[in-house]
Structure formats: C-alpha cells, structure tokens
User: Fold these one by one.
Assistant:
Number 1:
Amino acid sequence: MEVRAVGPAVITEDTDRLAVKALEQWMSLLGAEYVITDDSSRFAAETATFATTQKVLAILRPGCRDDVRECMRIANCFRIPVYPVSSGKNWGYGSRVPVTDASVLIDLSRLNRILDFNEKLAYVTVEPGVTQRQLFQLLQDRRSGLWMDATGSSPDCSLIGNAVERGFGHTPYGDHFAQVCGLEVVLPTGAVVETGFCRFSGSQAGPTYKCGAGPALDGLFSQSNLGIVTRVTIWLMPAPEHFEAFFFQCNREDQLAPLMEALRPLRLQGILRSTVHVANDYKVLGGIQQYPWGETNGATPLLPEVMRRLRTRLKFGAWSGSGGLYGTRGQVAEAKRAIRQALKGKVDRLQFLDDRRLAFASRFAKLYQLLTGWDLSQTLDLARPVYGLMKGVPTEKPLESAYWRKKSPPPPNMDPDRDGCGLLWHAPIAPMEGSHIEVVIEIANRILLEYGFEPSISMTLITERAVACVISICYDRCEPGQDDQAMACYRQLKHELTDRGYYSYRLGIQAMSEMSGTDGHAALIRAIKDAVDPNSVLAPGRYEPAETRACSKTTASHE
Amino acid sequence: MEVRAVGPAVITEDTDRLAVKALEQWMSLLGAEYVITDDSSRFAAETATFATTQKVLAILRPGCRDDVRECMRIANCFRIPVYPVSSGKNWGYGSRVPVTDASVLIDLSRLNRILDFNEKLAYVTVEPGVTQRQLFQLLQDRRSGLWMDATGSSPDCSLIGNAVERGFGHTPYGDHFAQVCGLEVVLPTGAVVETGFCRFSGSQAGPTYKCGAGPALDGLFSQSNLGIVTRVTIWLMPAPEHFEAFFFQCNREDQLAPLMEALRPLRLQGILRSTVHVANDYKVLGGIQQYPWGETNGATPLLPEVMRRLRTRLKFGAWSGSGGLYGTRGQVAEAKRAIRQALKGKVDRLQFLDDRRLAFASRFAKLYQLLTGWDLSQTLDLARPVYGLMKGVPTEKPLESAYWRKKSPPPPNMDPDRDGCGLLWHAPIAPMEGSHIEVVIEIANRILLEYGFEPSISMTLITERAVACVISICYDRCEPGQDDQAMACYRQLKHELTDRGYYSYRLGIQAMSEMSGTDGHAALIRAIKDAVDPNSVLAPGRYEPAETRACSKTTASHE
C-alpha cells in the first residue's frame, strides 16, 4: 500500500490508518511536542511563494541524528513519504512544501550544533539546523580571523540546506557545495554513510580533504532525495590582509555583451577570484524600494520606458555590477589596475570601496559627493549589505525585494510564505560569452513583460566559465489570478530557455519533471534511488526522474 | 557460472568454453587484429612494477564508444570480467594488471580523438586515449594562449586515466578531477550516461559547468568500477601574463614542520594558488641519478649518514621545494614579497626563476654561480623539467627515477613494467600541519629503512588544507626476494599509517581491501555496484568493498 502520488492528495482509508499508526510511533519516539499536527502549522508548511496543492500530514522535529534514523525506520514501516527540510527557507523554489502530496515533514532545525571549529585549518563542522547567523556569531565571539560565505537570503537560513542545494554566495568561497566535505548522511533506510576520509575510523584528514579512496559520493547528496545530510564540514576563508569592493554601472542595455567579454578574462586569469554579480535595472530597483505604484497609477507591469525614467532620476544604470577583491594590499592594488584597464570604455562608472571609504562616505555623504561626484547617499543603503555579503556578513536586506509587489512595506519579521509574497525563481546557466547572455536576456525580458511581470535579472559569474542567470518572477499572491499567471509565465520562460539550450542549475518543486527523460542519466538516478530507497519514502519526486524503470531494465538486460 | 575470483586463476573448463565463445564474438565485433591473445602481449599486460599473479585472457582494443558498449554487452552475455585501461601507465599502483584474475583487458588507446577545443572558454574535450603529449602538441600547433596541467609521469599517459584516478599536477589546475566536467560514461550494462548539463539535449553549458540539475554523478566514476569514462571536458588555464617559479631548500630535517606552518597561510590566503611540492633528500637524489652503488660498495639501503654526505657534496638540502607563481607581473612580484617574508628564517635558500633567468643560467651557468653564488649547473637538469611541469609541459624526466635501483641506466624508451623496475606507491593525505607531517615522515623513514629501502618522499600541498605525502618503495624486481620484501614493507607502512589515521588518497591493485568495512559507505557502494553491474563484469574488486551484501540487506530491511 503506497501513498505516493504527485498532485491532489490521494489519502485513502488505508493511508489514514497507516498514518495514524506511524504518528503514534513518531510521538513515542520524539515526544508529542515534537510531532506537530495542528492545522495552522500544517497550513504554514503547505504554503510557498507560489501556488501549491500538496498536503502536509505532520511535522516531525527530531533532536539528533539517531532520531532521524528512527524516523526513517518508522516511515519505511508504514510507507509514509517524508520530506526533510533544514531551515525550510527555500523561497522561490518551493519553501518547505514537499514535492509529493500527503507527506510528513522532517524539520531538522533542532539539529543545530556546531560540532567542531578549527581556526588554523579554517573549517567548521555543523548540523543542518545551524544558520548563517549562528556561524557568523561564532566567528565574532571567537574573534576569528576567518570569514564565512553568506547567501543573500535570510541570516536564518541553514548553511547545509543551501550547500546541498548547491547555492552560491559572494566571496571566493561562493560555490557552497565546492567548499564542503565529510558529509554524514542518513540513508532512506536509516543506515548512516560518512563520505570522504570520514568513513575511515580514526581518520585525520576527514575535515580537510574532499575524497577518500574510492568513488566520491558527496555529489549524490546534493540536489537529491537519496539521503538526509546530518553533518558537513564547511571550509572558511582567512580574512584577507585587505578587502576592497568594486561597483560598476553601464547606462545602456547593449553594453552587457561586451562587458561579459571583458570580465571573462579577469575571471579566467584569477584576477577576479570571487563571483561577480551583475544586475539589471529592475533588480536594482527591487533592492531599493517596492513597486512604484504612484509613478504608474497602480498599473503593472513597470514598462521599460518608465523604468528608464526612474533610472535617470535615481541615478543607476541599465546594468549594475559588483565584486570583491581579496588579498594583500599589493594584490588588491594590482587587481584594481587590471580591472580598470579591462573595463575601460565598457562601463560608465567604476568605483572602489573599502572599509575606510565606506565609513567616510556614511559620515560625509554630501561632502563625498562634492569631492568625487558620486552620490553615495541614495545607494549606500543598497551598497552596504552587498558590501557586507562580499565580506561574508549575512543580511536580511535582499529579502525585502520579495515584497516588491506588495502594497504595504515588509514587516520587521519577514516571512514571504506567510505574507503572500509571490516569487518564482528560474536560474539557467550560460557559458560566459556575451552572445549567450544576450539570448537569455532577450527571452527573459520579452516573456516576463508579456505576462505582466518585471524582468528582474541578476547574472552571477559563478565560475571562470559560466554565468548563472537568476530570473525572478515577483508578484503579489493576494492579487486574484496572479498565481496562475506567474506559473504560466514560468512555464513559458522555462520552455523557451531550454529550447535554446539554457537549463536551470536548480529546480523548484513545480519543475522536477525537468529531471525526467529516457536518457541514461535518468535511468541511473532511478536505479540508485531504487537501491537506496526501496519503499520510496524519502522525498519522492524531488530531483527524481519520473518512472524510467522500464527503460533502465531494458538497458540492463542486454544479454 | 562466474569466473570472479581474487588471487590465483580460477579457470575451469566452463570458463574456458565461455571465454572462447566471448572471444569469437569480440573478434567478429572488432576484427581479429584488435583482439590480442598472443602470449607475449598477455604477459606484458600481466606485468606491473611489483609482484602480481593475475592472468589476462586477452586484450580488446575497441575503436569507438559504440565498440565499448558492444564489448560490455558480450562481457555480460558470457559473464567474463573486463578491466578497462586508458593508457595503462598506472605505474606504482598496478599498471595495467586487473584486480581480478582471468580478466580481459579493454585497452581504450584507440579512442584518441580530441573532440572539441575552445580557446575562448578555455577547455578541451577528449577521449580516454588522448595523451598528455597529444594535448600539448595541439596547444603548440594552435599557438594557443592556454596551458594544460601535466603530471610528472610519462607524456604518453592518458589525460582521462589520470583524472579519473584523481591524480594531480603542478599548476593552479593541478587537482585534475576538479578540472573536468561533462563525462560520458558507458555503464557495465552498455547503457550510456552523460553527466552535468551534457545530459540535456542541446544544452549550451555542458563543457563549462560541472553539475546539471539533480544529483551530481561525476564522483561516482572516479576511482571506481561503476563505468567506463569515454569522454570528458578538461578545463585549461590561460597562460598568465607572467610566470615565475620558486625553489627553496632546508638543510636540516627538523625544519620541515615549521616550514609547513609557514606555507599553510600562503596556500590558504591564495598567495600560492598552485600545488607546492616538497621533496626529501632521497627523492631529490633519485631525480638526479641512480643508486650510488660505488659510494656504498653495492650495499643497500642508502643509510641516512651516507645520504647526508652526498647532500653536502651535491649541494642539496634535507628538504627541497618548488612552486609556481602565476599572474600579472605585479601579482607575481607581490607573491614573491609575501613568500620571502613568510619563509624568512624557515629555509636556507630561496631562489626565483623565470624564463629569462633560466635561459641565462643555462648559457652562463659558471658565470651565474660567480654572480649569485648559486650553483645552477648541477641542478639545472633537475630544475628544468620541474620548471616545465609548472608551466604544463609534460616531461619524461621524472620517470627515470623508477630505475633508481637498476644497475644499468634507463633506456631511451622507458617502460618500468618491462624493465623490471620495482615501484610501490603509497600516498596518505594529512592535514596541513607540521605535527601531522612529522608523524608521517617518522613512520615512513623508519619502516622503509628497516625493510632495506630508501624512504623517498615528496609532500604535495595539494589543496589549501591538505598534504599528499607520496612515499615510494623503489627497488629492482630482478633481485631475488625483493618483490616479497617490498610488499611486506608496503603492508607494514600502510598498517602503521592507517593506525595513526593517515589513509591513502588512491589505492594500488594490491590494496583494494582498504575499501572494505561494514560501514554504510561500503554498503552503499556495494548497493550501487549491484544496481549498475548485476553480473559484476566491470573491473570486479577495483575500489570495491569486499562483499558487504549481508550488511546492506540488514540495514535495508528495517521494517
């Protein structure tokens, strides 16, 4: 008897009976207070930043790894699908909502211990409940000489949650999954796997090196439903002798392609060692303020011609970019020279900012404008959190942009799920060439405006060769019809982009069908899933190709 | 009927009958010339740089990926274990010799096409037969501005072979498996899997980005027997504006630990962006000359007191190190400043070398010595190939050291397997701390000398936090008893090192039992192997935990 289904709840009487029995066992394991079944909690867990129909039967809050193992044992006994979340703040990609209907959430936020911290070798070992805020606090408390890398999401996001989703940040350690090792994973059956050298008893190198001998398994547990990651080691970067940020601006839309061509060699040559973010005007405006309802007399979308007027008034460009320079004073000076040279004639403004200048500008914004001609005062609010992120300081500021289309300002305790913020993200990867970027931009601009949304786009030079083009569809879920309109927009956007060969690096719960296909990759993931999760109880459907068993059987029976 | 076995051949009449039938089919597939069964070829394939007993039934030489798929289909039909090699030059770890007796080799050297080359995005896509020499030649022919990374093994080594074994080189792209993406893999059943974005039809980002959406599978095919890699994209580095190498020397053994402490911050801070290699005196001597039979009147091992005399005479230190600096002229100058400062008082000699100075020194070695006091003439022979490797120039020079204990000089066409060179490598990883390195060195020195071998050790600062301590047991296989003695030495070395928590990053065919264990990791690999290779025909035993099926079954049957 399986309760597995995608779409409307398939809760039969049998399911009910099994679920009741499972809940009894979970309660006796965790205590009733950690098995949450009240309507409002369940409703909250069923709510994302876009329309969903999946029901959540209960929320389990295990307190330790062995609780997680036992939870899985019980799930297997009664064939109840469970869906693990760390902090559950996967906004824009489905938040805490399970891919499959009638699931039980496993909320890992109580596993929030920092298990190890090593200043010399620059790493920290954490559980999935540990947040960005917690790690930042530890580094402050210890007066550590190490910096973490933070995402532009909430300080209360889980470090592991973001890393296993392969999220990215702003420092040279911005590729989060590349900077972790030594995973401890609870498999769907309850078995525990440690990866890298951690699997060997008494091993010394576990927290300092990715692989042990034999196949490297870490990748299996990123963007997957093959296990619950209960521990990782995260590498930290030593604070550089000197840090400086650079900000640049292009006034015209068509400057982007040549800009990419100019940035690529800097990235490839290691002059830029961290991610560079380039945002369009819509993205920048969303970081400064909410939708200009007055300006537009309440009409949406914000048309490009109005956007251009706002740009002129608020003094930002068609494209605004930023990046960090890390090193000795001499190295940073040298990088600045190379950047100035490479961006000459490509950008309309290029400004460098360090701690000293930031403090000065904050105190004497008016005077600074007189001296330099750069009006910092209105962009300081935007620049400061970005500047902080480049130094690994978590911030809540960028989250405000989720309230872009809302008619009241973001509350002090922001919760986009609760507050009806509409947000769908799509993040295709393109090779770092101007021509590719132009195609993605054209498609995104055209489709979002056509569907009545603002094409808010940021491009992250995520590696030496690739750009993550993060496109957000931002709306107000309280406006009737907007949920459907946004989803239709998302589908069309995805369709046209994949048609041209630009696939997303990460998928929302509504997009897991992208994993399907009759290719060997889909069949292999399916075969591994069958091997590790025979009852298909762990996050069924998550990054999992739809049934390809027939296909995989065919290829396996060559003889 | 299975022919699977480890140890002496288990060739029964049934096996013979099946093998004959399989060979017939392979011959009809590939043509008789590409199914090699003559005694001398088989004997050569059964020969490594240490004692082995495994028999090779035949050598298949498929010409394309689809040949490989068909070869696997036939292997499955008749349950004949096959063992793929790219160039087969896995010297010190087992060369071409299969882990399991009575296997058929699949030699991939005919798959030697360079499928794609992109100067702008700095990558090349190759088949497993493509060698270091071939890629280097391509870059020369195209007058490319890109550098490859080369290992210190033969120019005729396969690029893919080294990458999937997770080998390393000398430039900032020295971690070979970290610099590949977009694998094409033939699974044991013959199915084809493409990884990353390559799995999606028409995808643009395949060669520029590691992961697609969903679980990252690349790691499964490194150090494994889960598939045959038939294509990868290798990232190349742009030649820097300026390159400079540094060489340093410590006269006393006890300078190593503080040296490591001084180097770690440079590596962590990104001042040193490439692997740094530190070699002991034995390793250096082995790079300069063969065993000093005269000096020792034919006695072995070369004792530390004799070594010290030779060191003084030949003017090298207890420790000799080298690394490369890559960047703009300003960046390199800045790195030099930081290195000088960090190594002050830690080393007895620190010398920088660039193209200009190398050319000068070669021409005026004597004069140079007068001017600088540094006698380059005798170390130039050693320095030049190392210098070249740091610029990605493959060289045959380091291979000569495999002939260390031989009594005649290395022949022009070196082949350590054929020439009876004894070589066993063990390469434990240690955290980058002086105290750890000292433990490894003490164990290696003591045990190798005790067993009558020279402790030839090089330490590679392979990442920001970890050191690969490569220990070689080098001997003459033609000396009676030495094969056994070397293997006993290896076992003791491995035993004491793992006892202290230092495990090898890579295993020879004699050491695959290290993969075993009753932990979840072993069970998971076993479960995946069972899923992808139901007949266990692909390289059985290679990086594969011994039977843990019982264990994995237990954990899977919780209910």
Number 2:
Amino acid sequence: MRRDPSNDTKVHNSVIAQGLGRGNAVEISFTLQELVEISEDIKVEGDINNCVTGIASLKDAVGGDLSFLGNPKYAADVKTSEASVIFLPLDYVGKAKEGQAYLRTANPSRVLAILTLKLERKLWPEVDPGIHPSAVVHDSANVDATSYVGPHCVIEEEAMIGAKTFLQAGVYVGRHVRVGGCCRLLANTTVQDYCEIGDAVILQSGCVIGSDGYGYETENGCHIKIPQVGRVVLEDHVEVGANTTIDRARFQETRIGAGTKIDNLVQIAHNVHTGLNCLIVAQVGISGSTVLGNNVVIGGQAGLSGHLSVGDGVSIAGGSALLRSLNAGEVVRGSPAFPINDYQRMVVLQKRLPEFYKRLKTLEQIYLSPDNP
Amino acid sequence: MRRDPSNDTKVHNSVIAQGLGRGNAVEISFTLQELVEISEDIKVEGDINNCVTGIASLKDAVGGDLSFLGNPKYAADVKTSEASVIFLPLDYVGKAKEGQAYLRTANPSRVLAILTLKLERKLWPEVDPGIHPSAVVHDSANVDATSYVGPHCVIEEEAMIGAKTFLQAGVYVGRHVRVGGCCRLLANTTVQDYCEIGDAVILQSGCVIGSDGYGYETENGCHIKIPQVGRVVLEDHVEVGANTTIDRARFQETRIGAGTKIDNLVQIAHNVHTGLNCLIVAQVGISGSTVLGNNVVIGGQAGLSGHLSVGDGVSIAGGSALLRSLNAGEVVRGSPAFPINDYQRMVVLQKRLPEFYKRLKTLEQIYLSPDNP
Amino acid sequence: MRRDPSNDTKVHNSVIAQGLGRGNAVEISFTLQELVEISEDIKVEGDINNCVTGIASLKDAVGGDLSFLGNPKYAADVKTSEASVIFLPLDYVGKAKEGQAYLRTANPSRVLAILTLKLERKLWPEVDPGIHPSAVVHDSANVDATSYVGPHCVIEEEAMIGAKTFLQAGVYVGRHVRVGGCCRLLANTTVQDYCEIGDAVILQSGCVIGSDGYGYETENGCHIKIPQVGRVVLEDHVEVGANTTIDRARFQETRIGAGTKIDNLVQIAHNVHTGLNCLIVAQVGISGSTVLGNNVVIGGQAGLSGHLSVGDGVSIAGGSALLRSLNAGEVVRGSPAFPINDYQRMVVLQKRLPEFYKRLKTLEQIYLSPDNP
C-alpha cells in the first residue's frame, strides 16, 4: 500500500496526521543519517528513499514511517510492515526489503525513547517564564523568576516555587508548600498546605497531594475526625499520575522516595513510605503506615493492607491483595497473595476441581457402595 | 396515605420536594393526556384526578406522583404503590386502583427516559452563548460564536471549540485541542494538548483526557520517562465519567469509538482502542495497547492486561481480571477470568471443598487404616 | 541517641522538622502538666526535663518528642523508644526510663486525637470571612457573610452557602445548590446543580458531587442517555475523600446518611442510600440503588452490586465482591463474598488442594490399580 495523502484512512493513524503535523504544528522529518546518530551501537542494513515523516506501530506504519520491535510478541509483524525504517534488536533474523532500512541496536525501546524525546521538545516548546495575570499569588509567596505560573493558578501564603518549574493552569499550591525546581504541575492539580515537593517532579492533571488521611475515633457509633497534621513529601524525580491521591500523614510524613513513578487513580494512605524507584501501577491502593523498600513493583488494582513492611525488589502482581509483610525479593500473586509458584499451582488445581470430584465419586461408588463390605 | 405538603416526611423523597420544584425552581406538571402522547403504543387503564406533579420509585411514590416498573424484580411493589400513574410492561397482571392510572407499553424504561428528557430540559435550560469575562482564551484559539465558555475556563493556543458546545467552569482545553459541536464539558475537566474530541461528547466533572501514558525505560534500577507524544481521540457521542482518566498514546493514538460510554473513575491506558458502543462501568482499568471490538461490556472494577485483543460483543463480569485475548461473543468472569460456565462450576465446587475433604477422609479411614490390608 | 539539630537525619522525621515548626510556622511546645490536663483519667509515671516539642511514632521519636501506643502490635517499641513522653494503655507492663514520662489512659488514641486537634488549630488558623475578588458569584446566589469563598471559586445561580463555611479555591458550586454551615470544601471540588449539603460536611480536594448517573437505554446496539434529573444529598457531618465521585439520582436522590465517612477514590452510583455513620474505605464501588443501613463498614476496594439491601452494622472486608443482600450484623469476605467463617475455611482448604490431590491419588493407586479386584 502506498501513501496517498489525499485519500488514505491508514494515514489517519500516523503521527503526521494526528494534528501534530498538520497546519502550523510540528513537522516530523528525520534523515537516515540523523537516526543512525542517535546511538553509537546502531548498525544499518538497507537504505531509504526519503526522510522519515511519521512514527507508527509495525502494523499501522505506511511508507515514510519509522517503526520498531520492542516487544518480541510482535516479531512476526516486522516482515509485513510497510515502515521505511525499523529499529530491531541485534538477534532479529530477517532482511530489509528494497527501499527499507533495518537499524539494529541492543535496545530498540531505548533508542525510540531518545527519538520521542526529541519529538517531545518540538511538540511542547519551552514556555516563557512569568506569572499569568489571572493567577492569584499571595504576597508572602516566593516564585522563582524563571518559572511559569499559568492561568487561574493559586499560590497561597508562604509557599515557595523553585527555578524553571511549570504550573500549567488551575493548579492549587497551599500555604507553606515548597515546590522544587524543574517540576511540571499540570492543569487542575492540588498540593495542600505544608507539603514538600522535590526537584524534577511531575504531577499529572487532577492529582491531589496532601488530602487528609482517613482517621477517626469511634465513640458510641459516631466517628470523630482525627486531625491529620502531618504532610506529604515527594522526593526528586517522582511522577504522580492523573487523579491519584496521596494523603497527608496523621503526624510526621507520608513520603514517596526519589524516582518512584505512580500511575493514575492510585490511592496512597497516610503515613505510607515508599523507597526509591518503586513502580506503582494504576488503581493500586496502599493502606496507612505501610512501608515499601526500594524498587518495589506493584501491578494495577492491587491492594495492600496497613502497617505492612515490604522489602526491596518485591513484586506484587496486578489485582493481588497483600495482607502480610514480605521479605526482599519476594514475588507474590493472588487474593490473598501467595508466593507466585504456590499461586500458580493453586489456580491449576482449582481448574481441575470438577475432575477431582469425579474421581472421588468413582472411588466412593466402588468402595462405599452397600455391596462393598 | 395522603400527601400533606406541610408535614410529611415521605414528600421529602419526591422530585417535587427535591429543590427541583421548590421556590422558583421547576414546576413538574403533566396531565394524563400529555403522558399518553409520549409514545404511540401506550394503552391507558383507569384515570387520575389531578395532574402528575412528581416522579418517584414505586415504594416512595405518594399521590400525585408518577412511577414505573422497569425491573421485574420490583413487580410486587406495583400493587401497594400510591403513585397516581404507573408505567407498566404489557404483560404485567393487575388492575389500577381508583384514582390511579396504569399506562402499559412495550418498554416502560424507554418511555420514562423520554419523560425525564423533557424534565431535564426544564431543569437545565439552555445557556446563552458567550465567553465569561473570567475565562482565559488564547488569541489564536477559535471558539464558535454559538458556544458557551464558563467562568475560569482556559483555552490555549490554536485550540478549536465547535458549535453549541458548553464548557461549564474551570475547564482546561490545552494547545491544539479540537472539541466538536454540541459537547458538554462539565466543571473542572481537563483536556490536554493535541487531543481531539468529536461531536456530542459529554465529559463529566474532573475527568482527565490526555494525561501522559505510564511508560519508562529502566536503566540500573532507575526509571527514565518515555515521552508520550501521541494523543487521545474521543469519537462522536462518547461519554466519559467523573474523575476518569484516559492517557495519551506513547505515539499515535488512544482512541475511544463512537457511542462508547465510560463510567466514573475508569483508567484507560495509552494506546488502548475501543470499538463502537462499548460500555465500561466504574473503576475498570484497561492496560496499555489493549484493543476492544464493538459493543464490548465490562463490569465495574474489572481489570484488563495490556496488549490484548477483545472481540465484538464480549462481556466481562465486574471484578474480573482478564489476562488473555477473547473471541467475539465470549462471556467471562473471575480472577483470572474463565468462561462464565466454568467459573460458576468452580465457585460451586469451591464452596463444597469442606464436604470433599470429609468424604476423602472417610475413604482413607476405612481403606488406609492399619486394620485394612 | 541525642538530638543534634545541626546534623541528624532522624530529626528530619519529627514534626518539628516538617516545615510545621520551621521559620515562621508553628512552634509545638507542651509542658507535662498541659499534657496531663487533656483527659481526666491520665495517670503520670516519671518526669521530663523540658517541654515536648514534637510528635512522632515510637520508632522515630527522639528526645523532646511525644509518642503513643495505639496499636498493641507496636508494644515492643515502647521500651526502646527515645520519646520523652509516651501515652500508654492502662494494661501496658513496663517502666519509664529516667527523663521520660509514661502517661497511662484508657484510650491513648483518643487522647492523641485531642492533642492533634489543638495542634491543627495552630497549623490552620481561622480564615477571615469574605469573598475573594477572583471568585465568580452569581447575583442570585446567597453566601453567608461569615463564610469564606477563596480564589477562582464559582457559585452559580440561586446557590446558597451557610454560615462559617470555607471554600478553599477553585471550588464549583452549581445552580440551586445548598451548602450548610461550618462546611469545608477544599480546592478543586465540584458540587453539581441542585445538590444539597448539610452542616459540618468536609469535601476533600477533587471530589465530585452530583455527576450524572450511568444510565442508558440500548436500542439496536446504540446507548441512549437517560437523563439523570435527581440530585445528591449529603447529610450533616459527612466527609467525602479526595477524587471520590457521587452520582446524582436518575430521579429522586442519592443520599449519604449523617456521620458517614467516605475515603478517597470511592464510586457511589445513582440512587444509592447509606445510613448513619457508615465507613467506606478507599476505592470502594457501590452500584446503583443499593441501600446501606447504619454503621456499615466497607473495606478498601470492595465492590457492591446494584439493588442490594445491606443491614445495620454489616462489615464487608476489603477487596470483597458483594453480590447479594445481607442481614444486620453479617460479616463477609471474598469474591464473591461469603460469611467470614466460611471464607476462612475455604481459603485454608484451597491452600491444601495439592495435598488433597496427592491423597486422592494414593487411594486410587491402591484401590483402582489393575492388581486390585
């Protein structure tokens, strides 16, 4: 299939046609030479006729697009892909077609990441620093002159915003909050009073940092609110997903360790601590005072009880319910969560329950029948 | 029980007393004739004394209220209901009391929908077009003159808003976004840069369209963000629930097919595609690059792994965890999800485990005891 | 370990070092006498040298800090804690060290709650009433003169705000909404048209009250929206967590009973009713028209089907899926949810499945082998 810009539904899926390249927006154009220069270890096989002008998956790519094989699951799509350039792992077996180039590298995903970063800089050009006239900034707040505060943001008493930080629009920064440098707080995020945010932190839209922890004393069936006078600390390079909520501590801190990445709609309760570089996937819930080590990975929709201790490098599968503490390196799954091997054996045996039942019945019929002594 | 407006706790539950009919708010008043004219197939049994002035469930209704039997589960409530008018299916067996009318129709729920639509138009009268002076609209943005942009909305560079679209308040529309005609973007919604929204789309409050997908390359335990340079496309007649999040694609698109309705607090990851007219109930999570066919139904809190393909008309029960692709028409349940029949047999047998254990023990005691050769 | 303010990483965790006591922020300082006066039943053992100047957990506390034993799980930490003052239950066995005081009381958690309330009043001093000039308040709205309406709030037509209510910033209050007295609506919350909020209600940031219920009539595979013309009523002393969503009724009401506390990211569907003083933990989902009695407790991430009736005092464990109605006082767990005893037996037996299988095989090998008649 050849690209015909005037009438081609497939074109609709390539970046060039995503409104990203239309009209005055960004023009994508990379020569083969520019692509090869991305990483030292790239080896070229074949050649292309023109510049690359779009990026697409192996299946959706048309002539002129760049594609890549990141997940071996899609290896079969390489052969039939119409992409002009394909990034491939070193061990992929196959040859480029005419007018097509294969670029082999140890890690195609990493090379693509570098490329999309270049693209990102075109799509989101740097914003001029300054405070939008509609923003409301308290006299006692301190905003670095190199930062941008967008429309309808609110920065309260004694708050501080570091250098080169970007507040998109409608962002609320409460009293005595400290936000570091090079942060990105996207539209409609909330950071409540006294919280502290390190450098290079990203808050996706709608997330809430420093909501009250869920704590009550019950007297005669009525629940009396326990004031939550602690705060939230997000260390450097943390990312928080859209509409995720992180509660302030009852006292002391809820703390997210440097480099930890949290997906959308996650709930982090009061006094939780995470270590460095954890990955917490969407819709996970972590109950109060649970402590995670470094490099813990938690799959989507998993839930963790409160007051647990989870060791370094633990992996908790999506949808699991963790009810007990774990040592470093454990891999668990299920609800309640078991070591992964136990879990898998249990699932297999559960599926075989109808068979067991039948075999048990057979034995009974032979040996427990009235005819049998 | 007769309605006494001055002192009647039950009145508190009827629409008329919901602040909807109080003071200067909407007056509900339908004659029997007006109700009969809603649908051609309505057959009247009985008569009423006055106009209908409220709508309530069968149990809560008082004299003067209209009610209906939508779910057969509540059939027993018809006889004892004090509603003046009741919409009933054709096959309901029973007779209206004096001063009461039964209106029979093939689909009472549908008739009620038409009626509430009339009511809706009274409760939410059309808003005059225009841009509120507190809204911040970039010079290069293009807002149709027939649309309404409410207080504190922000419309960035090169964004376009189609005809008769309603932006309630505090709505953020990012750079190069295109919003179609006849859309409703409710308070505090966010649409990030480059996303595209079709016609007649509804975004409930707090939802986020176009947050960054969750993608990192890990090097030496550190997670390096992969720029997410794609976008989100919502086709015509899509509805997105409150605080739901839909991530922009890594590249290319995350796309929600026309007529698909998404409930609250749902997470749709990057590069997911849904077909036409899917129903995705609250708190569902769909992982990256999974593709749904048309008319797929996903029950509340279900989770889908990434890179799956789900055929047309598939039904996934609430709370399920789908780990594999499904063919058209499959019905699954459980965590992990099994075909519904297998699932139900397994649940039954799980409940019988104590009994199995006992029977196994009985056999052992007889045949494996030392007395037995 | 002694506190050395100049160089001590541990200090970083005590309240005094949380930015709460730094610079111009709050100074914590309680004498032993002030602490003893909190509750009549406090008995002192030991004495301290100086004022208490921080609050920390038993493990993190340093000299000068106050701590407490709330959860017996941490009893072993009392002995080794460096806290200067520790609140303890009456039955704790042990003696204070020199320069340390034990304060015994029937309920240490409750005493701490009183103390933190005092602290809270310092951290969040009362705000002067008034309407921020950037707020947009409709001419027909009625805001009590003792209330505070913060920056960028929007209060629409005919809305009413009671006395001493606090709207932090970016709060949206729709048409005909009524908000009671002494409420706290935190940043970026949304209350849609016609909803009613009682006295002393707290809405955490980002929550949405009165989004449309999820209701469609399907005709030929297309889903036609059923207008949701009811409203939401939050009775007195309700608290709603961050980014939680509560849908308006199809008609009539969605109603949250007085004193009910809802955590973050919870979904309450249309026409749900909760009784008094329920506790609904994070990420719970309650489907349409389900009715809860009083003092129902629902653990995190549990899901409830629609049209159920749940009796007073029911307890549903976290992660459960409730598919049937429950009588008062029932305690259930699992997915689907079973009575807690049945559930626990089932989990134990599931773990023993490999053993059962082996035992069954042994019987078969002996009695079903060809050698056996």
